[in-house]
Amino acid sequence: VKVILENQGGEKTQIDTVFLHFSKGDSNYTNIVETPANLVLGQNEQDSVIFSVGVNASAPLGGVNIDASAIGHSLVSGNTLVINRSNTRGFWTVQQRPQLIVPLLSINADTVSTGQDNLILNFRVWNYGGGVPTATAQIDSMNLVINGVENDSAQFTFVPQFSTPINLVNNSSLNFNYLLAVRDSASRGSYDFQVTIYYEDVNDTSTFNLPPDSSASASLVVQQKGDLDVTRIQIIPDSASLGQNNVAFTITAKNTGEGKVQLNSSNLNLH
Q1: Domain ranges (residues) in the chain
Q2: Buried-exposed string 97-110: b where 16+ CB fall within 10 A, e elsewhere
Q3: 20: burial class by Cβ within 10 Å (0-12, 13-18, 19+)?
Q4: Hey, do 2-94 and 100-223 end up sharing a CATH topology, with the first three levels equal?
Q5: What gap in Å lies between CA 88 and CA 1, rounded to an integer?
Q6: Which fold has domain 2-94?
Q7: Across the beta sheet with 100-107, what order do the strands follow?
Q8: Cis peptide before 165 (omega within 30 of 0)
Q9: Distinct helix (H) and strand (E) counts, the chain
Q10: Where would you tag: which of 54, 67, 108, 238 has the fewest CB atoms within 10 A of its CB?
């Protein structure tokens, strides 16, 4: 907070103490008294005093008027001079910290095979302050969490389809995507996906993080990809004549993997 002081009288004056006053109570703030060293103002001279005010966690939210007063003395007569209020008042709005939540996280499949790609993981981030004055969040980074481990790429590859930093004002939300693929070497089983968000309050750059346990989650079951083996070829009958047409044969195939296999065509090679 900057307080500008001006000597509109004729005597040279030293400013001894400057005070800030808040319409919703001075006790909600710290560092509101300054004793500037050697702040002397001649006739029609002005100078300023800067306050680095601390806002207590108990400070009421919403708009606050800010006033100032000062005590000084004349360097000519020695008389004490008191300024009870400023000519113009300041104003600010006290906001609560950003209230980030991840209410939705989804994957466009629930069961996949090893080696499968083009999966989309979508999640929504919301700065949910409701009707309460709430600070804007600057999202600095977001990490994918797989089975509790951030950015674990042992079983999956994932490419963010967004860039940071991103600002999120109160009561606004944004959707984000990861392009996800299952590694060929991925272990079969169930995997839980969440996100961790690292962000700051744009008012004072204080940093915070939204842990994965506070995020919505989605599960994905990985199966070994389908593996089709031909186990038998049978001609019916078991012999054919030269020039014979429409010889029937039967192919028996078995899927030795876990993922489903769709047989689109088959060819018979004669040796």
Answers
A1: 2-94, 100-223, 227-271
A2: bbbbbbeebebebe
A3: buried
A4: yes
A5: 13
A6: Immunoglobulin-like (2.60.40)
A7: 100-107, 119-127, 172-182, 156-160
A8: yes
A9: 0, 23
A10: 238
The residue assigned the tokens 């939540």 is 101
Tens digit of pLDDT at every position of the chain (271 positions): 999 999 988 889 999 999 999 999 999 999 999 999 889 999 999 999 999 999 999 999 999 999 999 999 999 999 999 988 888 899 999 999 999 999 999 999 999 999 999 999 999 999 999 899 999 999 999 999 999 999 999 999 999 999 999 999 999 999 999 999 999 999 999 999 999 999 999 999 999 999 999 999 999 999 986 555 665 667 776 666 777 776 676 766 666 666 565 666 666 666 6
Q: Which two tokens stand for residue 20?
A: 């800030």
Question: Token match 């009958």: residue?
Answer: 237
Q: In the CATH scheme, what is the code of domain 100-223?
A: 2.60.40.10
> Which DSSP state fits 96?
B
